[in-house]
UniProtKB/TrEMBL annotation:
<keyword id="KW-0503">Monooxygenase</keyword>
<protein>
    <submittedName>
        <fullName>FAD-dependent urate hydroxylase</fullName>
        <ecNumber>1.14.13.113</ecNumber>
    </submittedName>
</protein>
<dbReference type="Pfam" id="PF01494">
    <property type="entry name" value="FAD_binding_3"/>
</dbReference>
<feature type="domain" description="FAD-binding">
    <location>
        <begin position="10"/>
        <end position="324"/>
    </location>
</feature>
<dbReference type="InterPro" id="IPR050493">
    <property type="entry name" value="FAD-dep_Monooxygenase_BioMet"/>
</dbReference>
<dbReference type="InterPro" id="IPR002938">
    <property type="entry name" value="FAD-bd"/>
</dbReference>
<dbReference type="GO" id="GO:0102099">
    <property type="term" value="F:FAD-dependent urate hydroxylase activity"/>
</dbReference>
<keyword id="KW-0560">Oxidoreductase</keyword>
Amino acid sequence: MSEINQENRKALIIGCGIAGPAVAMFLKKAGVESIVYESDQQPDHFSGLFLNVARNGLRVLDELNVSDQIKQHGIALHAMRMLNGKGKHLGDIGQPSGQPQGYTILRGTLNKILRDEAIRQGIPIMYGKKLVAIANNTETEVTVQFDDGTSETGQFLVACDGIHSRTRKIVLPAAPEPTYTGLLSFGGVQQNRSVRNEAGVQTMVFGKKAFFGYMVREQSETYWFGNMEYPGKPTRRALMNIPQEQWRRTLDGLYADDIAPIPDIIRSNQQEIGIFPIYDMPPVPQWHHRSVVLIGDAVHATSPNAGQGASMAVEDAMMLGKCIRDIPNIQHAFAAFQAIRRERVERIVKYSRTIGQRKHATNPVQVFFRDLMMPIFLKAANKDAHTWMYDFRIDWNEKVHA
């Protein structure tokens, strides 16, 4: 039998990003103690740039009593305003005076909020624990080995170690590799009083050479980002080895002829520019093997275009907690988790990639049809065409059946 010992249940969690602390807290609510293992030597409060926690993700985080902190530290996103490269208004998603569609927050801040709450709940987080091997993986327990020579055994393991998951490569060696979308994401945060603040509105511009977006906090703090085509299969390490001054020249050339305030944002930026290659995951046939299950970016990483990566991760965390709580047989619990989540997350990954492709029309014919069709697309989006994504709800008190 592969049922969890109800007297001494222990989970090992690999990765302390967004999914790791969240699943640890939901497992605790389900009566399962866990330990989170992170390969970094210490918390990185400045990891990544910023992200969107959509309203479906906020509902999940409200169950963990951290949504108010996200609202306090984030920027309420009410509407996205779309402009073409000449400044023509193509349409909006949402209403500036309506309810927030989500909150834009620094990734490091979101990570810290989740870590701090996990620690407050008594969940151990161990740093400097890089997974190197899974020495034993049966239907009743799993043993992992770390690069510091230590090992640990638990009843099951939850892999939250991201798109380039070491766990996935070990337990699911036949799983597809992440796919490079052909685009880079870059951006930063700066103080810039010359950029007009329109509360709750994120401006998105289909520039002449590349896409650009920005949003302003009340303190004149501008969050900005862009996308550009980039050949090959770059790694983040390789991109960050390129001098910052070279990136500044590249971005200045991309946006020099675009509408205000884009050139000013680029030229006045004195902070470090974050550069990230955009990968996503093709459908992974199997999300679990014996006593190991993958969640979040480790199994269904999405490009950032739909603003759903963090929300999907915490949805996974909540649903896995429910499955473990309600289905004693661990393999059946993992199978139920995959069956419940798979269609939704694969649809979001596909949708997000489609949005990314729309951003990069460059020749006149593509631009003409994009500008022609975009208002129609945005009008449809405002007629509840995306309720399937943003109004999705998970009820913690609803029982899961195998």
